[in-house]
Structure formats: structure tokens, C-alpha cells
Design brief:
974 residues; alpha+beta; five-stranded antiparallel sheet; 32 helices; 28 strands
């Protein structure tokens, strides 16, 4: 076996091939059911974990060499390397895809459509992440990598977050360095990647032992505040926030409705009594009604909606500002209105709060008042205030000033007792376990994160699923009118311990079983994991140390990680911070150095705040990419996973890569959504992750300046070729636009620096912004899709083009304003205001909606403007004629529509017929139990069937015939 030729950069597999179809299906399988998620998902919440299978594929394909005859000759006994097809099958095997997911998906879809129940899961193998790779494959993998690089290549992830990439790489035995700025994320990396990689399942017995000690001590201190009655166990205490009526002063609980359970025959709801025996009450009394005693109309009526409330006492509106004002001056209180219980028989039901419940709450509040100041002094309780937040996170108007305000006094007492007991346990564990103690304590501290996420004023009762919702069921802070409380003495931390053991045990088992020696189960695969906490722009690594920098960076403004993580950080400073104080050295998370477009950091800058947030994000990403270039070997690879529907996000990310000195060699879109799923849910946002593959750029020879005009045709060709290729792989809509961004950036990067064809205001050359080239790519896609929709490349007219391409791109009436703006420009230089004046769209709250024919009707003085005009003699825009036909069909019937068509001779009009063909191709042709999801699609279907036989109608899908298939994005919630 000859050694590697290190004089040239080894070409890696991901530069030639990535199994995008297989990865898309497997990524969806991985996220297909909450109960079947990878165990890493259950250890501690993090807001954007990539699927493990996609992470493994990119991590591995970025270091495996592209197949060559030389490789096959170097390993003559390895059948996996003897031809390119076998080599690619081997990659799929290495990442756990032990069958044909594309074929399996087709079989499942066919069975669903036919109403046939399949035996097994339809794929013939388990989810990819569950399959442990045998030692012989790991040994061959390592031999190939050493042959290629001279040693096992090190993978670095500078923004590792929830740990999918380093975990997947470490599982296969690659040396890994995982870094994150956020102390909470770094703790998750240590607990989910580093510790199980080195300790494995050996840690579980000690976790159980000491975890049970901790749980029992917490229970003993808290059980008097959670009394049980009649042998019951408490599932949840269900509360409402309440304020005084501004006119009567009497308490108004803020309930969107009064339902507790809607299951037929087992209904449960709460009633509110405002007087007893003719005596008016200062606060309502609650009663739980069950079964036939439930008044469904009353149960469906609440006291709050759209941020306002209705007083129980005078039926007048309480304005949203009055609610917030009451909260801010301390007048908002919390009232217990129901208790979800399990009887000794096992029956789940609800009961009215008793005097015993209320006395226990009062006792807990008194105890909290007693310990609060000492706990604040000794650091048991967080004292930190909530800082400025982005608008959608801003919760302070509802009276949340300090992080402890997120909890009732009883909930805060529960958390404080855990912190105190954890601190007292530490010395005992260290005395008995010595140097092994830190790993045990580290995992036990994670119980707190679970408790925080499931027990606060932000957790809630899920009526439909009859369970509690966590705080972060979305990627934001959202004020809850009603909330649910865990039973804090016996149930909460015993459940948290069970979750910890299951999660850690599952993580460790997957690692231990991968690469284990068949001759000796104790001979585990050695793994090397280093976790760093700090800025991705300043890594504690030497120059050229990493062969593959594989990263999933923050997505512009998608998730404000630091803002959300503060909720955990302020408490975990008191537990995890005892073990890794360097991770928690500040009072709050580091937002100044976080690479996100966070407008909250620029609130004082007025209208410029978004511009400054964008510039801040670009500057920080450029610094991170520059650091990646420093630590990357000269022949190494940078792979970047990115997804965002906003052009600004791609413009700033692309500029960062270009300015940091990288070329984009290729890109791969991995789609995690099905066409049926898109139509059912009317999704209109990005569902693909784009994998950008980059190399260090070498200095361009010569001093000839390159302008966009010089490479425009190359950009257009690259975008067109990419769209045609990825369209074949099932990439559609917004994702098809995104799939061209990588190839477009690639063309620019090969010639960088590239200058704009338009000089700056002083007449000097200015560097090209990637968005200028991305606009060219969008124009190409518009032309390509137009041709596909209407069967010819020729334009119809600009308004009609926009409607056709909006339906084709978004498969929904409503879609984001930013993407609508870009599409309008690409179609023909339109802007959204023009479309609104033409009554094609309406704008609202950052979105744009296509108007229905009825909404487009013009009357009186507007009779000559674009829109629906049944009496018009002619139409300038074909979409107006089509919508007028559909309007007449809806209100006067198809015969009247036929008379309109005959009057204008549209039956024989080529442009009109082409537009109909485009619309039936573009609109979602989906029914639910026989009813069209988009009614206009149904009217078009009837119209074409009756009068336009030359229009080919695609097959419609009735989702009532399908087994429920809940699509899931790449992003994950706990």
C-alpha cells in the first residue's frame, strides 16, 4: 500500500457526490416521530440540531477521497473500493443507511395511496442513526483516511451548538474539536459528545445511584408543599394568569377557553362562578365539570383573545395595554383552576383545586419568602434581570423583569432546593468517586435543564394531547395566558432523572456499539473529543490543525440562541458553573460576540438597526470564516450547512466566505420535505439545507479586474444547470431558488475579487455584493420554471407571470414579503407595491398574500384598473381575464363563465390556454375528504374539464386516503 501524494490537494468525495435524495428521506425519518428522535435530542434542549444522518454524511464525505482506480489498487482486498458504485454504497452503509430509502419511500407512498397497511416500517431497516457500524468497516475507513491524509484527519466545528456534527464524526472514530461561544451549548457538547465518547455506558450505574440520592433529598424537602389526596398522583397543576378588572377591581382570570379535555365521552372543562347564593365574589371560584356536565358552548368561551380580555363582571373589553400595565405594577397574579390527576385505578381525570391544595401553595410561598433573600445572597437563586430582547421575544411588558419572574414562587422554591441539594451532594460524590466524580455530577446537573424547560409559567397544558408542553415548544419566548406546573416533589426530578438515564444511556449505547470489537465487547473504539468554549473567531488550535472544518453556523436571524439560552444559563451557572466555571464566567450569555443578526443590540439606532444588525452578522461571520481558514490545513475542506429563505442572509454569508478567502467548490441541497407534505401544510419557507463545500482560495495571478458583466453568462449557466439537476432530484419551490445560490457563489468565488458593474456614488469601483449575482440566478430560475409551467419559454405578461410563479414557488396563497419582493423583481422588475395596486396581492405583517378572484373585483371608478371586471370589454393582463372567469363561475355558475369565455373568444386564445395550463400545474391540487384545499384549483379543474380539453390536468391528491405523515424540518425542538 503506497502512501498518499501530499503534493496536491486530495479531491474529496463531497466535491463529486452526495446522496441528496437518500439523505433527505432519512433526515425526515429521523425527525418523523417525537418518541423516536435520537437520544441526543433528549439530553438538553438546543434549538437547531441537524439530523445525525446528514451530519455524518457531510463530515465523512468531506474527508473520504473521491473514488479513483489508484484507491482501488491500494486496497485490492476491499470489495467496497473496487468500483465507484460500490464505494458510494459503502458511504451509505457507513452512515447507517442499510437499504434503499428512495425505493422504500415510493413503496410507502403507493401503499398509503391505496389504503394498504405495510408490514414493518416500509424501508426494511431501522432509522440510520440506530445502526451500529461494524469494526471491520471502521478499520477500513481509518485505513483509507490514513492512506489519504497520512493520519486520521481531525474535524473541527467552530459553532457546534447541539453537537450533531461532532457527535456523528466522533462515533466513527474521527478526532473531533467542538467549540461554541455559548456556555450552555458548550455544556451540552461536553455532556452529549465528550463524556459518552470516553466513559460510555460505564457511567450509568453511578448516575442511577447518585441521581436517586439527589431525587430523594429534593422530595423530602418539598413533599409538604405538594400534598396528595386519596391515593392520587398529580399529572399537572393548571393555572391562569389573572388581573383586576380596571372598572370593578374584581379578579379576571385570563383564559383563552375553559377546556381541559375534549375527548368525546370524556370531556372536561372548568366553570367560573362569580357569585354564590347571590353574593358577588372578589375572585371567581372554579369547578371542574366532567362528561355530560360540560357545557360545550361555555367551555369554548374564554376571557382573552388577540391580546385583549373581557371582564367577567361587566362584559366590557380590557385593552391589551391595560393588561400589561397591571402586570408591570405587580397586579397580575396566578390562580390555580384545575388539577390533572391519575387515580389509584389508573384513570386520568381532573378535579377542582381543594383547600388543601391552596394551603400547600400558601405554605410554599411563605417558605420562598423566608429563603429568597438568603438564597440571593449566597447565589442559589438567580438575581439577573432580563436584558433587551428582539421584538418577538419581548416578554417584559407582561411583568417579567427578572429571570426568576418566569416562575411562580412555588416553582422557584423547587428550583432553588435542587440547586442547594446539588451543591451539598458534590462533596459526597467527589469523596467516593475521586476523579470520576466530575463526569457523574455534570450529567446530574442536566436534570435541572429538563426541569426548567418543563416547569415554569411558560410551560402549558396541551388539551389535544393531554400532556404538558415545554417552555420552548417554539424557538421563542411567548407569554402564556394559562400554564401548567409539574408536581415538584415526587414527579418532576424523578422524571428528569429517568429522562437523563434514557438519553445518556442511549447516546452511550450508540457509541459503544459502533466499532466494538467482535472478539471482545469491552474493546471499544477509542475516541478523541475536545470541547472548547469561546468565540469561533478565536479557536485554541494551531495553524492548519484541521483537515475538515465542518460547521452549521447561526442562520442570520432565525434563532437568537443567546437570548433563549439565558433562561437556562442563569440557573445552570449555579450547578454546571460549579464544575466548569469558565463556561459561565459572565452574568449572562455573550451576546456581543454572537454571530446573529440581532436587532435588539441596536435598538437605539432607530431605522438603521436592521442595517447595523446585518453588518454586525456579516463582520462576525467573516471573522469566524477567517479563523476557519487559519486552522484549516492547506489541503483541507470547509463545509458549511446553511438554510434561510431571506436573500439578505445568503448575501451576508456569501460575502463572509468570499472575504475570508474561500472558494465555493460545489453545493448540495438536502430536502427534508415531500411534495404532499408541502401541499397539505401550505408551506412556503425553506425546507432544504444547502451544503456548501469550500477550499482555501489561492491568490489570483495578474492585476486584471473582473466585473460582474465579465462572468454574467457563467453565473446564469451555473444557476440554470443547477436548477435542472436539482429539479430532477425533487427540489421545488423556494428550495429550488436556494439550490442555485451555491453554484452562483461558486462562480463568483473562483474569480474573486469581483466588482459590481455599477460604480459607487463617487464613480469608483466597488466590490460586488453576492446579492447582485443571486438576482441573476433567480431570473434564470424564473425563465426555466415559466417554460415548465406553460410549455414554452415565452412570457405571457408580468402580472400573470408573477401569479404563476408565486403559486409554483410557494404552493400557498401567503408567503414572506422578502421572497415575494425578490420574485417580483426577477419576473420583470416589478415591486410589491405595484402588485398591490393591481390587486394581485395584499401586504400584512411581513407577509404577502395572493388575492382571490372575489377580492380582486374592481367597482366604479376603478373599472379600468387591473383586476376582476365582469363587464370589461378587454383585459390587458391575462390573469385578470382568468380570475374574472373564475369569479363568474363561483357566483353565477359554469354556464355563465362559458358565455364570458365565448364573448371574448378565450376558448381559442393561446395565451389564455397557456395560462390555464400553467395555473393547474402550479396550484396545489390537493383535496381533504373530497374538498379542494384551494377552491380556485377545483374551479379551474372543472373549467378545463368542461371547456379546455387541450389543457392537461395533473392528478389530484385526496389526503383522506393517505396515512398521516407529519413532515418535520431539519430544525428540532426538544
Amino acid at each position: 500500500m503506497k502512501g498518499p501524494d501530499l503534493s496536491t490537494k486530495p479531491r474529496v468525495l463531497i466535491e463529486d457526490w452526495l446522496p441528496v435524495a437518500e439523505l433527505g428521506i432519512e433526515s425526515r425519518r429521523e425527525r418523523g416521530a417525537a418518541s423516536a428522535l435520537p437520544p441526543l435530542s433528549f439530553l438538553h434542549i438546543w434549538w437547531a440540531r441537524r439530523p445525525l444522518v446528514a451530519s455524518a454524511a457531510v463530515a465523512l464525505a468531506g474527508v473520504l477521497p473521491a473514488w479513483s482506480e489508484e484507491l482501488a489498487l491500494a486496497f485490492p482486498d476491499a470489495v467496497e473500493l473496487q468500483d465507484e458504485a460500490a464505494y458510494r454504497r459503502w458511504l451509505l452503509h457507513l452512515i447507517g443507511i442499510w437499504g434503499d430509502p428512495v425505493r422504500g419511500r415510493k413503496v410507502i407512498d403507493a401503499a398509503n395511496a391505496a389504503g394498504v397497511k405495510l408490514q414493518g416500517n416500509g424501508y426494511g431497516y431501522r432509522q440510520a442513526f440506530r445502526n451500529p457500524i461494524p469494526r471491520k468497516d471502521i478499520d477500513l475507513l481509518h485505513a483509507v483516511l490514513i492512506h489519504t491524509w497520512g493520519e486520521l484527519p481531525m474535524l473541527a466545528d467552530p459553532t457546534a451548538g447541539g453537537g450533531s456534527i461532532p457527535w456523528a464524526a466522533s462515533r466513527l472514530g474521527l478526532p473531533v474539536v467542538a467549540n461554541d461561544l455559548n456556555g450552555v451549548a458548550a455544556s451540552v457538547l461536553k455532556a452529549g459528545v465528550e463524556i459518552p465518547a470516553t466513559r460510555g455506558l460505564d457511567l450509568v450505574p453511578e448516575l442511577k445511584k447518585w441521581g436517586q440520592v439527589l431525587v430523594k433529598r429534593v422530595e423530602e424537602r418539598l413533599k409538604e408543599y405538594f400534598p396528595l389526596q386519596g391515593g392520587e398522583s398529580v399529572i399537572a397543576y393548571i393555572w391562569a394568569n389573572a388581573i383586576p378588572c380596571p372598572r370593578t377591581g374584581r379578579l379576571v382570570p385570563l383564559l383563552p377557553d375553559k377546556w381541559l379535555r375534549k375527548t368525546a365521552g370524556k370531556e372536561a372543562a372548568v366553570r367560573m362562578l362569580t357569585e354564590v347564593d347571590g353574593v358577588e365574589l372578589a375572585e371567581p371560584i372554579f369547578e371542574v365539570a366532567l362528561g355530560r356536565d360540560v357545557d360545550k358552548a361555555d367551555a369554548s368561551t374564554g376571557t382573552t383573545a388577540r391580546g385583549k380580555a373581557i371582564s367577567l363582571y361587566d362584559n366590557l373589553v380590557i385593552e391589551g395595554d391595560d393588561i400589561k400595565q397591571a402586570a408591570q405594577v405587580g397586579q397580575m397574579k396566578q390562580v390555580l383552576y384545575a388539577v390533572a390527576i391519575r387515580k389509584p385505578s389508573g384513570e386520568r381525570t381532573f378535579r377542582t383545586p381543594t383547600q388543601t391544595d391552596l394551603e400547600a401553595i400558601a405554605a410554599a410561598e411563605a417558605k420562598y419568602a423566608e429563603v429568597k433573600d438568603p438564597w440571593l445572597t449566597t447565589g442559589i437563586l438567580p438575581s439577573e434581570a432580563i436584558p433587551d430582547l428582539i421584538p418577538k421575544h419581548e416578554i417584559r411588558p407582561y411583568g417579567f423583569t427578572y429571570w426568576t419572574d418566569m416562575f411562580t414562587r412555588r416553582q422557584a422554591l423547587v428550583q432553588g432546593v435542587f440547586v442547594e441539594e446539588f451543591a451539598s451532594l458534590e462533596a459526597e460524590v467527589r469523596k467516593e468517586l475521586g476523579e470520576d466524580a466530575t463526569d457523574v455530577l455534570f450529567q446530574l446537573a442536566l436534570m435541572q435543564g429538563k426541569a426548567l424547560n418543563w416547569n415554569s409559567r411558560m410551560s402549558s397544558w396541551d388539551v389535544s394531547r393531554q400532556k404538558m408542553r415545554s417552555v420552548f415548544d417554539r424557538h421563542d419566548f411567548s407569554f402564556k395566558w394559562t400554564f401548567a406546573e409539574f408536581e415538584g416533589a415526587r414527579a418532576l426530578f424523578s422524571w428528569c432523572l429517568d429522562q437523563l438515564i434514557d438519553a445518556y444511556g442511549g447516546i452511550a449505547r450508540l457509541l459503544d456499539e459502533t466499532g466494538v470489537s467482535p472478539a471482545d465487547a469491552n474493546d471499544r473504539l477509542p475516541r478523541e473529543v475536545t470541547v472548547l468554549q469561546g468565540s469561533g473567531a478565536s479557536l485554541a488550535l494551531p495553524d492548519g490543525a484541521a483537515t475538515h472544518v465542518c460547521m452549521d453556523p447561526p442562520y442570520y436571524d432565525n434563532v437568537m440562541y443567546a437570548e433563549l439560552a439565558d433562561y437556562f444559563y442563569v440557573w445552570e451557572r449555579r450547578t454546571l458553573g460549579r464544575l466548569v466555571p469558565d463556561y459561565f464566567h459572565d452574568d449572562l450569555t455573550d451576546k456581543d460576540n454572537e454571530a446573529v443578526a440581532n436587532v435588539a443590540r441596536f435598538l437605539t439606532m432607530g431605522k438603521r438597526r436592521q442595517e447595523l444588525a446585518d453588518l454586525d452578522y456579516e463582520t462576525k461571520m467573516t471573522s469566524i470564516f477567517a479563523e476557519c481558514r487559519r486552522v484549516l490545513a492547506s489541503d483541507g475542506v470547509l463545509s458549511v450547512m446553511f438554510t434561510h429563505k431571506k436573500a439578505n442572509a445568503w448575501d451576508t454569508l456569501g460575502m463572509g466566505l468570499l472575504q475570508a478567502g474561500f472558494t465555493i467548490e460545489t453545493s448540495w441541497p438536502v430536502n427534508t420535505e415531500t411534495a404532499v407534505g408541502l401541499n397539505i401544510r401550505a408551506l412556503n419557507s425553506a425546507q432544504s439545507t444547502i451544503m456548501l463545500v469550500c477550499r482555501k482560495r489561492e491568490d489570483r495571478q495578474g492585476d486584471t479586474k473582473v466585473y460582474l458583466d465579465d462572468i454574467e453568462q457563467d453565473v446564469r449557466r451555473a444557476a440554470r444547470d443547477a436548477a435542472m439537476r436539482f429539479q430532477h432530484d425533487g427540489i421545488e419551490g423556494v428550495d429550488l431558488l436556494l439550490s442555485t445560490y451555491g453554484p452562483t457563489l461558486s462562480v463568483i468565488s473562483q474569480s474573486w475579487p469581483v466588482y459590481s458593474s455599477t460604480p459607487d456614488e463617487d464613480g469608483r469601483d466597488k466590490l460586488l455584493r453576492p446579492e447582485e449575482a443571486l438576482a441573476l440566478a433567480r431570473e434564470e430560475i424564473v425563465g426555466l420554471r415559466r417554460s415548465r409551467l406553460v410549455g414554452k419559454a415565452a412570457k405571457v405578461d408580468t402580472l400573470t407571470d408573477f401569479v404563476l410563479l408565486a403559486w409554483d414557488t410557494f404552493a400557498a396563497r401567503e408567503f414572506p414579503f422578502d421572497t415575494a419582493r425578490l420574485l417580483a423583481l426577477a419576473v420583470g422588475g416589478l415591486d410589491v407595491d405595484e402588485l398591490e395596486r393591481a390587486k394581485v396581492v395584499a401586504k400584512s405583517s411581513g407577509n404577502v398574500a395572493l388575492l382571490t378572484p372575489s377580492e380582486r373585483v374592481r367597482r366604479g371608478g376603478d373599472s379600468d384598473a387591473p383586476g376582476v371586471r365582469p363587464e370589461a370589454a378587454s383585459f390587458d393582463y391575462i390573469i385578470d381575464a382568468v380570475d374574472t372567469t373564475l369569479y363568474i363561475a363561483e357566483h353565477d355558475g359554469m354556464p355563465a363563465a362559458k358565455r364570458f369565455l365565448d364573448k371574448h373568444d378565450y376558448i381559442n386564445d393561446a395565451g389564455f390556454i397557456s395560462t390555464l395550463q400553467g395555473l393547474v400545474n402550479a396550484m396545489p391540487r390537493t383535496k381533504v375528504k373530497g374538498e379542494w384545499v384551494v377552491p380556485d384549483a377545483g374551479r379551474l379543474d372543472t373549467l378545463c374539464t368542461l371547456y379546455f380539453p387541450d389543457v392537461t390536468l395533473p392528478e389530484a391528491t385526496d389526503v383522506a386516503t393517505l396515512v398521516e405523515d407529519k413532515p418535520a424540518a431539519l430544525f428540532e425542538l426538544e
